[in-house]
Amino acid sequence: MVSLSDTTASAARTAGEQKQLAGNETHATVILRAGNLVKQFGDVRAVDGLSFGVEQGRCFGLLGPNGAGKTTTMEILEGILAPDEGSVHYRGKPLDHRFRQEIGIQFQATSLQDYQTVRETLEMFAAFYERRIDLAELAELCRLQEFLDRDTARLSGGQRQRLLLAIALINDPRLVFLDEPTTGLDPQSRRNFWSLIEGIKRAGKTVLLTTHYMEEAHRLCDEIAIVDKGRIIVQGAPDELLRQHFPAAVIRLPASALARHDQLPDDMVCSDGMIESFTDDVTVAIARLEGLGANLGNLKISAPTLEDLFLKLTGHTLRN
Amino acid sequence: MRQRILAVIRARLREFYRDKASLMWNLAMPILIIFGFAFIFSDKPDDLFKVGILTQEAAGDTQHTTFLATRYIKFIPVTKLDEAVTKVQRHQLDMLLVLGAPPRYWINQHSANGYMVERVLRAAYGSVDTPPRREIVSGTNIRYADWLMPGVLAMNMMFSCLWGVGWVVVRYRKNGVLRRLQATPLTAFEFLTAQVIARLIIIVVVTLLVYAGADYFIDFTMRGSYLALFLVFFAGAACLTSMGLVVATRLKTEELADGLLNFISWPMMILSGVWFSMEGTNPIAQGLSQIFPLTHLVNAARRIMIDGAGLAAVGFEIALLSALTLLLLVVSAYLFRWS
Questions:
Q1: Residue B58's pLDDT band (boundaries 50, 70, 90)?
Q2: Which fold has domain B49-137?
Q3: How far apart are CA B279 and CA A224, in angstroms?
Q4: Which residue of chain B is at minimal alpha-carbon distance from A118?
Q5: Is A111 in Cβ contact with B177 (below 8 Å)?
Q6: How far B15 CA lies from chain A's nearest CA (Å)?
Q7: Reported ipTM exceeds the 0.85 cut
């Protein structure tokens, strides 16, 4: 049985391993590597030559709309699904028994055995592993104390997600897979869940996360890969990607605020009932709109988001 | 490995006994069936008497043909004298007629039917120089409920094994429980072993409770060894559980599992001698019944409970059920897929 404080020691151990393997730095820092993955279902090529590496101790996000191939990619990386082509390596080796012992997985949709309490479910899963976290500390980490002896069928959505996260952490894993962990949660529950994931990151674990919530990816991920139609479109740190592709701010106001749209400058576009302008100088942009006679009553100024990036790169939104 | 198997066994047992509706179904149904069918079959069938016919040598008379043409008597060919005599003792046959020179017949002195059919026999033979030689046996009647009990116990076991393992594993696959387990170090072998052991524990406990409950209400006959009966039922349960596992290896929907399990269980239930003896039925049906493990389970259990057969006498059935179990386990382990 290990305690939560042991996980910090685990992170230190990991750092030590990095120094030891400094001669082969790429393999020391990349804990999981996907090489040219391909998976086809009938005529549909769900994963189409996807390659990336996940660095130890970081949170890597796979971002994309429904049907992009994120979950299929995750299942291949988790060892649930065999790829038609390509390879997956964990700590430099193909997936093996050690991989199963050292990972934790929270699936997007899963069921648990009936007529079991939360405690009994955790104890059953704990029995599968050689290394287990102390259940009391795990319950505290995932805020399960108040319903430990409740039937799992009687949990709310947020409670259930916390239980599934606890199951994913029960073996104090090095690598945690979270497949759309906050889908279906209300905004408050989602934010509470984010704080749990941030706690996992602080404990030095590597997290591989899929989501179609851009705010979630931006907040949690150190690095993201945007996936569409089975391929990675772009990869990098979220803020860096936004800096590369957009000016500092975006101004939006309703199209009805301007009587004529044919006089719009080239850097302003009108679509879906909104006038949009990406700009490094908000003052100048507002002045130009005033000059065109625009009603600025409903003007909004914000920073570009990953959804803006996805729209720019693919022509459709993340929520499609 | 052991703790992983034990963890899954504990979880499965909790699933079973906390499902109160299923628990009542497992315990109450077989007893209700016994009462129901004992009532349904309390009427006399069209044939008034049952006479066993054994041909040991060419009959030296022609009067037996007159007797064999008598209406409302069911003539059942038998091959073993001692087994047929036992049936007369148990009132399962009203008379045994051995054709030969001279012919012999056995009747039970306590059987009213035996008395009547003897009168018919003597009328058929009339005044001949060598009338059939009379042999008298005695013994108490076996009620239909006594005869039925081994079959009902075995049938209850069959449904529990097939649906309790086969259908449940398919449901696990459909709703994602198997996928969740696949993502752990638990192997398919460990998971399947745990399912089999959990089901055998449930079967032993439920069968004991049903047995005790039915015995309290019906006071049925049990002439043989409890050890032999336990071993027969255990071998049968293991075999039927393995059969359920084979069904569960690849199916993805409960509807398909339901259909396949019904397709397997209904012919087995009808043709395995649970509700009525297969003696005297269509020879094809009799041959078909031999391929069902339930047939051998029911026959062995009935021989122990009603005829007092010992372990050696049912050794063939135990060996056959055990061999079939091994074969089905190998097949299911080979075919099983988590998803």
A1: low
A2: D-Maltodextrin-Binding Protein; domain 2 (3.40.190)
A3: 74
A4: B11
A5: yes
A6: 5
A7: no
